[in-house]
């Protein structure tokens, strides 16, 4: 990163640099956006009781929630930029195979032509087993991100990368290297030959994979090979615009159509549920209720009316409302107040009592005369 950054500055093409590694202590190059400015890696470890890799993933998750703001900043400066460099954590499982890594990668790929540079430590790749491990990592990254990729062999000042290029282009060269490695061909003391057979099968399987990769060789120490690397980057940008962009647009369109279909399905289900509830809550229309007629009542057996009182003829037809009794307005009593009624009641009671007293007195007198 530091060498690439300085190389672009010397070409008068300063890049826009983002650091997404929250665990790095010191960045040897200038950054425009740094994850450490918004997320404290050590505090995440302490607060959530996490280990190193867990804290890196949690920090990336927190940063991914603001990726729309990051894209907004980069898009404002994009007209004046030729390159945007994003330095990700070295642990592949923390970035490529995490949800936050996929969100960040997809966000950039949806806004800008994006490519992946996979850095290989050339001196450590001289062993066929290490070489095959690197190729499997690269293959997994390619199929996970679905973005153009360049395999970059670094430290070419310490180790010539031609052997690796031959292994990628010539299957027989890799088989020869397997036969000459005692730890893989079964001739070593602790070797069973299983690893050699596995490497042989993997190399056959990855032969098609190698054909779709661009290879670059650079030295971060001397700066050698960076012009060729930038040429490969430009080829991948053209490849992105030609092939990958159309594929990604199709994926995004399919995703949006699926989301719209799910939303419409949920809305239809919701409307059906609301309709069912409305039907249950809707009051019954009396006009639609069945009404018993006289003929229906005549068909009822006498014992079916047990416990019911039959209505008189003057009370109307069964099923009609009951008669309401009111005072006749022409009647005098209809105009009487409560006080006048009480006075009449008292007078009637007094008259009745006086009559009863006279009758009793008359009986006593008659009995005395006899």
Task: Write a structural description.
The protein has about 375 residues and is mostly helical. Helices cover about 55% and strands about 5% of the residues. Strands 2-1-3 form a 3-stranded parallel β-sheet, with no helix packed on it. Strands 4-5-6 form a 3-stranded parallel β-sheet, with helices on both faces. Helix 7 (about 130-145) links the parallel strand 4 and strand 5. Helix 2 (about 40-50) packs across helix 3, helix 4 (about 65-75) packs parallel to helix 6 (about 100-110) and helix 9 (about 170-180) runs antiparallel to helix 11. The longest helix is centred in the C-terminal third of the chain and has 56 residues, at about 225-280. The protein is elongated and about 155 Å long. The termini are far apart. It is an enzyme of class 3 (hydrolase). Small GTPase required for proper nuclear import of RNA polymerase II (RNAPII). May act at an RNAP assembly step prior to nuclear import.
């Amino acid at each position: 990163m530091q060498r690439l950054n300085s190389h672009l500055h010397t070409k008068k093409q300063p890049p826009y640099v983002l650091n997404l590694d929250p665990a790095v202590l010191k960045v040897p190059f200038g950054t425009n956006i740094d994850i450490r400015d918004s997320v404290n890696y050590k505090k995440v470890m302490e607060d959530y009781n996490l280990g190193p890799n867990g804290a890196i993933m949690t920090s990336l998750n927190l940063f991914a929630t603001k990726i729309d703001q990051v894209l907004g900043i980069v898009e404002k400066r994009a007209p004046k930029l030729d390159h945007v460099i994003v330095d990700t954590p070295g642990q592949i499982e923390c970035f490529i195979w995490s949800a936050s890594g996929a969100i960040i990668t997809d966000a950039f790929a949806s806004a800008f032509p994006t490519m992946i540079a996979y850095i290989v430590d050339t001196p450590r790749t001289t062993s066929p087993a290490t070489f095959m491990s690197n190729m499997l990592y690269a293959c997994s990254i390619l199929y996970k991100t679905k973005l153009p990729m360049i395999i970059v062999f670094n430290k070419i000042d310490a180790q010539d990368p031609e052997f690796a290029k031959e292994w990628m282009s010539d299957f027989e060269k890799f088989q020869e290297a397997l036969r000459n490695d005692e730890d893989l061909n079964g001739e070593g003391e602790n070797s069973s030959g299983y690893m050699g057979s596995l490497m042989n099968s993997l190399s056959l399987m990855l032969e098609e994979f190698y054909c779709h990769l661009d290879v670059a060789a650079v030295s971060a120490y001397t700066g050698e090979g960076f012009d060729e690397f930038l040429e490969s980057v430009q080829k991948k940008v053209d490849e992105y615009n030609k092939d990958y962009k159309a594929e990604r647009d199709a994926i995004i369109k399919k995703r949006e159509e699926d989301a719209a279909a799910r939303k419409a399905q949920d809305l239809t289900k919701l409307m059906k549920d609301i309709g069912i509830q409305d039907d249950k809550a809707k009051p019954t229309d009396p006009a639609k209720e069945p009404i018993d007629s006289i003929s229906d009542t005549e068909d009822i057996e006498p014992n079916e009316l047990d416990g019911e009182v039959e209505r008189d003829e003057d009370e109307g037809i069964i099923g009609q409302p009951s008669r309401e009794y009111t005072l006749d307005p022409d009647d005098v009593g209809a105009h009487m107040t409560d006080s006048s009624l009480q006075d009449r009641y008292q007078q009637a009671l007094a008259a009745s009592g006086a009559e009863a007293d006279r009758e009793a007195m008359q009986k006593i007198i008659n009995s005395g005369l006899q």
